[in-house]
Predict the 3D structure of the following.
Amino acid sequence: MSTELATYLSRYMPITDELADVLAKSSFVQSYPRATVLLREGERAEKGYFILKGCIRSYILKNGEDKTIEFFIEEESVLPLGLGKDVPSEHFLECLEDTVAVVSTPDQEERTLAEYPQLKTVCLAMTEIMAEKLQVSLARYRTSTPEERYLDLVEKRPDLLQRIPQYQIASYLGVQPESLSRIRKRLSRPTEKK
Amino acid sequence: MSTELATYLSRYMPITDELADVLAKSSFVQSYPRATVLLREGERAEKGYFILKGCIRSYILKNGEDKTIEFFIEEESVLPLGLGKDVPSEHFLECLEDTVAVVSTPDQEERTLAEYPQLKTVCLAMTEIMAEKLQVSLARYRTSTPEERYLDLVEKRPDLLQRIPQYQIASYLGVQPESLSRIRKRLSRPTEKK
DNA sequence: GAATGACATTGATCCAAGTCAAGAACGATA
DNA sequence: TATCGTTCTTGACTTGGATCAATGTCATTC
């Protein structure tokens, strides 16, 4: 059951029991084993995910190099670019761990919204929250060095450092694995010269 | 009058004449001279802008350094982070040119949405478009070098290079003005060695 | 326990961006 | 025209990340 979704939403919006019911009925939960690729470059994005358990990574291949765009963990929404539109995806989605997620499709969502227009308020709120997060991420990334970004990660999402291999963290920070290794070394002995 | 807003929206959504009327009545247009600061760090963000003419820059000050987050031009929406919420803004907004914009405030917007709930669909669509753009920007920025970002700008927004001083373009690309100058030089004589 | 493969660290070298300082180009204005 | 301020360019030097190659570490498996 996906009462978790209702619980989550209720932090941002008052969710009546009826609404919770609607949500539970119009969505379905699915499990994916580790390393499942949910979306490939060039494919049409058909599904959105709300993660209940596990971790999804979004990345692109550029000149054969794997570049991490974002990590998504429990209670986060993964909405691929161009979801439901007839455009080929530029990025990949893969499960880094065994993952359980509420899966939604645009047409199903549309039907639900048509039937329960009140839900649009919730959607609007969620989308706004998402846009805000993106703005913050963009501003942060633009205005910081790899070292600062690493320190930010240590402070704000230490869990990621535990569950994700370092070379993927490096790609997320925008550097090569070797560089992240050196950044860590640098930071580990701050007591030296100057 | 702000029928321009309705015209713009009609590209994404069917806008009835009635809706256009509502929009025109519930918004007002304002002019700002060049260099007007619309929002300062620490202030509460009270207003959103839809630019009819001119250009707005969003930036933050970090260790006394001015870092450009984004440029907004005609037909773009400027929605400050935390708009209407009781949190101090982290960024500044300034007009780079004499600017004319449709100005909206959250409570006014709320009133309009309460009166014309159909508008929520429009809002949702606009917010989704905004979130998409942000996702693309973030992915692009994360996965490219300053040189690539400059080439991207030349290709996709050559107008910005015309109307915005180079040192602000540099800060937008994430480099110092000197570096942008050298990037341009490098690119201008591609016929050499190797 | 030896071999394999995946990940992390280290060293050497290269290059792009940062920094500091000087000058060039340009427009506005006296 | 002379002067001033702003923006852009150039030069010399430093620094941090990229790259390539070697080695270290650890878990898995035969």
Observations:
- Chain B touches chain A at residues 60, 62, 67, 69, 79, 81-82, 90-91, 117, 120-121, 123-124, 127-128, 130-132, 134-139, 141-143, 174 (CB under 8 Å).
